[in-house]
Structure formats: C-alpha cells, structure tokens
Amino acid sequence: MRGLSWAECEALCGEMTAMRAGIREERGIKPPIMFCRNCQAYHEMKNLDVSVRALLSALKKVGAVDESKLASQDKTWQQEQKKRKREMAAHALASAPTGEAAQLRSWMLRLRAILWQLLGTVESLLTMVLSLLASIESLLTMVLSLLASIESLLALVLPLRTPVLGLRTPVLGLRTPVLELRTPVLELLTWV
Predict the structure, then answer these.
(1) pLDDT in tens, 170-187
(2) β-bridge mates for residue 36, sequence order
(3) What residue ranges in the chain does DSSP mark as E strands?
(4) Which is nearest to 191 in space by CA: 144, 166, 159, 163?
(5) Which end of the chain, N or C, is less packed with Cβ atoms under 10 Å?
(6) CA-to-CA distance for 117 and 25, rounded, in angstroms?
(7) Is the dihedral of CA 163, 165, 168, 170 positive or negative?
(8) What is the dihedral of CA 152, 155, 161, 166, to 10 degrees?
(9) How far is Cα 152 from Cα 184, in angstroms, rounded to an integer?
C-alpha cells in the first residue's frame, strides 16, 4: 500500500472486479444461485465488487503486509468511510428542500406509510371475506346434501309424482345451488 491513496485503491479494486468478471466470462463460470425472499424464487446472484477490505486481506495473504500493518490500514479505511458518509450526509442535508417543500415531502412520506398500512389491512380483510365465503359455500353444500337426503326419504315414504325439493340456479356466483320448494306445504299435508 506504499504511496497509494484511498481513491487509487478504489480504482485498483474496480480494475480487479473487471478482471475477475472477464475471467468468469472467459471460463464460463456462472454466478451463484440465491433464493429471493421477496418473490420466493431462485435467481442468479450479482457478483459483488472487490472491496478495499478484500484488497487489504489479499495483500496480507500474499505477504505484502503483516498483521499489524493490516490492522492499522483497516482502521484507517474505516475512518475514511465514516468521513465520506458524514460528507455525503452534509451534502444531502444542504441540498434537501426547506420550508414548504420539506413539509410537503414529509406529509407525502407519512401519507405513503399510511396507505401501505391501509393496503395491508384491506388485504387481510379480503382474505377473511374469502375464507368466510368458502365456509358459507361448504355449509350450503352440507345443507343441500341434507335436503337431498330428506327428499329421497320422503320419496320412499310418500309416493309423490313430483319431488318436494328441487335444485335451482346458483346464487351470487357460488358453485352451491340454492334449494327451492316446488310443492306447497298444504299439498304435502293432503298426502299424509
């Protein structure tokens, strides 16, 4: 690391990253596969750039620096990164909108957070409604089965020409049809 500034070290890291990418392409080495938690699928991982800390570790590995020199350089690099972050934060603060524009941005960020919460609530509410509709559908299926059993039982007991209960068209787009009485109750009583 004799005589290299941190900017030159970063440029060297960029060259090493490009060289590594060229070697991978030349030899047909594919990037590693990773599982994405967001989309629940497997994707090729992006190859990370060679960092300054990786460069320092490589220099130690080949014997160019000893342990104490590596520790001091690593500490200096961490201080340099902190200094850069402070400068970037100061620059961002200086270029940040002030007055009404800052207040408007703050309100927009709050509104976005509220909208995300509202969307989450609506999503869970829709899930519960769909679950309730599925329960109603299964309940109607059981009622249909029970009424069909009653109808077949009545057909055995009472020799009627027309069925007491009949199936009709589905209601509200459900797959379960709704039952309807075709024969008035008084007619049933006359047969008994």
Answers:
(1) 444 444 444 444 444 444
(2) 41
(3) 33-36, 41-44, 165-170, 177-181
(4) 159
(5) C
(6) 45
(7) negative
(8) -30
(9) 17
> How far, in Å, are 32, 42, 53, 74, 175 from residue 48 at the CA level?
11, 18, 13, 19, 53
How many other CB atoms sit within 10 Å of the CB of residue 6? Answer: 15
Name the amino acid, one letter, at 25.
E
| Whether the Cβ atoms of residue 182 and residue 165 lie closer than 8 Å to each other | yes
Spans of all domains in the chain? 6-95, 137-191
Query: Cα 177 to chain center, whole Å?
Result: 37
How far is residue 63's CA from residue 12's CA, in Å, rounded to a whole number? 18
pTM of the model: 0.43
* List of residues 6+ apart from 183 with CB closer than 8 A: 160, 162, 163, 164
- Amino acid identity of residue 54, one-letter, is A
Q: How far is CA 98 from the centre of its chain?
A: 35
For the residues 150-169, what does the mean pLDDT come to? 64
The predicted-structure confidence for 102-123, as pLDDT tens digits, reads as follows 778 888 888 888 888 888 888 8
Q: 142 pLDDT band (50/70/90 cuts)?
A: very high
Rounded to whole angstroms, the Cα distance separating 94 from 81 reads 20
CB 70 within 8 A of CB 55: no
What distance in Å separates the CA atoms of residue 66 and residue 1, rounded to the nearest whole number?
Answer: 12
Angle of CA points 53, 59, 63, to nearest 5°: 145
